[in-house]
Every structure is written in C-alpha cells, then in structure tokens.
Amino acid sequence: MWKHISVNRILDFLATALSGPPALAFAPAISLAAYWIGGERALIIVALALPLVFAAAVSVANKADIRSKRNSGLLPIDAFAAGMEDIFKDNQRTGHEAACMIVELDGFPDFLDLHGNAAGNLMADQFRARVASVIRSQDMATGMDQSKISIGLHGSQNLDLEACIQMSGRIQAAVEEPITLNGTSVYMSCSIGFCLQSTIPEAAFAEWIDAANAALGEAQRNGPATIRAYSSETQRRARIRANLRKEFVAALDSGEIRPWFQPQISTDTGHVTGFEALARWEHPQKGVLGPQIFLPFAEQADLMERLGQVMRHHAFAAMQKWDRTGVIVPRIGVNFSSDELRDPALIDRLKWELDQNDLTPDRLAVEILETVFSRRPDDVITRNVTSMSNLGCCIDLDDFGTGHASIASVKRFDVSRIKIDRSFVAKADRDASQQQLVSAILTMAERLNVETLAEGVESPGEHALMAQLGCDHVQGFGIGKPMPFEKTMDWMLAHQNKINGMPKIGRQARP
C-alpha cells in the first residue's frame, strides 16, 4: 500500500513538473543536447516525443488535481466532466455501478429577493460546504450555479438505488440544519435528482448529467425537499413536456391560449363588480388545459411576459365588447407575474395598451401575489407596482394570508382590495376557527379602509357568511366557474334574472 502511495506521489510530482511552464523552458536545451549526443536522428526522435511526453504529463496532472480537490471542495466543471468520463469508462470495464446526482436549493430566487445578495452568498457557501461534508472522499462535486451542485458518486459494488436514496437523505438532513442570519435562524431545503449509470449504460457525460437534471426537474414538480431517480418513465414524461413546450409557443401566436373569465359579485347588491381573467389553453387534441399544466413551460422558456401581453390583449378586447353591448362590467382583473413586474418598460407598455382600447386605468385590477410585497422596497417590482397605483389602476393583493405582506406594505402600495385566500373561506360557515380568521382579516381591512374579496366561495352558506361578516365581494365556483368570453353574456343575463327580487343578506354589526 505504502509503495503504491509513494509511486502515485512521484508520478504526481513528475507530472506537475513536466506540465508546468518551467518544463517548456527546457525544451530547446533538451533538443540541442539530443543533437550533440545523437545527431540529426536523435533530434528528430526528441522533437516528435516531447509533445507526447508533455501531453501525457498534463493528463496525469489533471487526474492528480481531481484527486486533490475531491476532499477540499468543488471542482471546476471541466475537471468534473473529465472525472465523470473516467468513472464511466472504468465502470464499463469493471461492471461496477456509479451515479450522477444533482442537488438544488428550494426557493433560492425568492430568498435572494427577500434577503439580498449578501445573504444569498452566505446561504450558497453554507449549502456547498454542507454538501461537500457529506459526500465520500472518493466522490467529486462541482458547482453548476450558486444554488445547484452536481455530484459524481464513484463506482462500487455496493452502490445501488437504495444507497443513492440514503445518500440523498443525508445531504438533505445536512442542508436543512438552520443557518443564522441577522440573529435569526433561517431554514433551507433542497431537492435531488440522480441517475444510475446502469440506467443509461451507453451514454456519455452530457447525457448522464441531462438525465440527472430531468430527475431533478421531476422532483421539483412534486414539491420541495423531494428525491427522484431517473427512469425510462422520466424520459418519456420529459419528451412529452418538451413537445408541449414547443406547442405552447405556437399556441401563444395562434390564439389557443386566451383568458376565461370568472365573475366577482357584490355581497350588498348581488351585481357583477368585475371578472378575473384566468389563462386557459384550448388545446385542439387535449381539450382545455389549466395554468398548472403550461405555466412551468412559460417560466422555463422566459415567456411569462409574452403570456401576460396576450392575456391583457384579450381581456381589454373583452371589456370593449361588453361596453359596446351596454353590459356593465366595472373592472377586469389581470394577474401580473414577477417576470412582468421586473420589466422597467412595463408602465409605458401598459399605458399604450389601455389607450389603444379606450380604457381608463381604473377599469384594470392589477392582481399581484402577496409574496411580491415582501420584496425589498427599492427594486423594480416595487417601483412598477407603485407607478400602476399612481396611474389609477386598482391594486388587488391576491391570496392574502398565505404570504408575508405586512400592513405597512398594504398602505405603501396603496392596495385597493385584498383577496382572502380560499383556504380561509373553505367551510367557514361550519368551522368556528375559520370564521374567526376571516372576521379578523375583515376587521383589519376595515380599519385600513381597504375593500375585500373572498376567493373560493363554493356554497350558499359560505356566500351568506361572507356577506354577514362584511366582505365586500365574493368569487368562486359557487358564484360562477371560469368561462370563455362567448358565455359571459348569457351568464350575466341569467344572473341578473336570478337576483331580481332576491332579499338582501343583512350584515353583522361590528363592535
């Protein structure tokens, strides 16, 4: 054993010496010495042999560099790729199993938005150190970006699916230990995808890491802190998603993707106070697809801004048609993604779109998720939301109660209305604790002079309770399901006939 180690050290030393710049300086002297000793034949032999010697030395030096860095940290991506190729070839000869594993922090972009780059760097450093502390000494790793690490598990007879799952569990346990940030404990989690070499025995490094990436993507689609192994089924689903992604791009241009409209009504009068525009893909073969199917494609392909423009185009056109027929729809609610809100040119484009459709800004309800309001107060998102409010648009704070928006944020952004998340509304007419939560939100909104809308109202009992508690508007399947524009006119006529002569629901007196 000691003899083997000594030979390795000697080879590493010679490789380092021969592959460095000093060795090149001696090349002319070596050639001249060969000519003096052996004449022209020796000079030709040395001239041909030297490049081969230097190339071999560089190869040995690279392998030595990989061995030395496996225990000390993350490898450069090119060294990692070379090491993985070596593992692949060795295992094809020995029949051992190896694996490529990719680990990614969950929710890292949101963490950056919330805490800033300095905190993000600290978390990334902690993440890398913890992953490196768990992997075996013979394994290697490289950083793919701040929040993503690729790991090569060296081949062995004992490496199998269960061993990879156990390794993944140990990595997750290490990552989930809290870190201290500004005196408080912050928790993080990670998702992991891996691919055993035997699953794709004939592939090269690029296909191997792509397979691990596909497994990671599947893990992330199933929620945070999830582990998935690559399989033929993973490959099939990835191919389907790739085809759907291509179809999605074409559907944006063809008009297959357009808004369906869900009504919002007043609890006082029962009249329609607006519609929310919800994206639907009217696929010619697969039928109507909801946003949970195609939004991931839009995000991955950086098409959220394009989707937003398409949605506003159709929504504003619908407002024009309602106006021409004399139907009163005071407001249309349109969701704005974080990608759209990060666009510095958003306000100018929005002004142009409203002007082109002869709509005043107050006819637009800008629906923004509550998580947006937890971001830093000086970023582009904040400036755009403030500008839209100053323009006269109504700002709707969506899914209220599920994020981290503060009361100060509600006032700073001049929020017009908070939309109470359906998780608080569900079965509130039968659950006293739900009633208390909704009542507390409504009391806060009244003190802030902000309107309220209850989402997810599905039963007459929930509708009646929201009215009694003082919620201003309601929306949900119990009022009306999302529908294409062509059906909105008939629905509004039927609804008006339904509420004619309907008695008002009295509100509870507030203390």
Note down, in words, how this protein is organized.
With 511 residues, this protein is an alpha/beta fold. Among the domains are: 2-70; 77-230, Reverse transcriptase/Diguanylate cyclase domain (Alpha-Beta Plaits, 2-Layer Sandwich), CATH 3.30.70.270; 244-335, Alpha-Beta Barrel (TIM Barrel). It is 54% helix and 18% strand. The chain is built from 19 helices and 16 strands. The protein has helices at 2-19, 21-25, 27-70, 77-94, 108-115, 117-134, 161-175, 205-221, 232-254, 291-300, 304-324, 338-341, 346-356, 380-391, 407-412, 422-425, 432-448, 460-469, 485-499, and strands spanning 97-105, 140-145, 148-156, 179-181, 184-186, 190-196, 227-229, 257-266, 272-283, 287-289, 332-335, 364-369, 394-400, 417-420, 451-454, 473-475. The strands form 3 sheets. An 8-stranded mixed β-barrel has the order 8-9-11-12-13-14-15-16, surrounded by 6 helices. α6 runs antiparallel to α7. The longest helix is centred in the first third of the chain and has 44 residues, at 27-70.
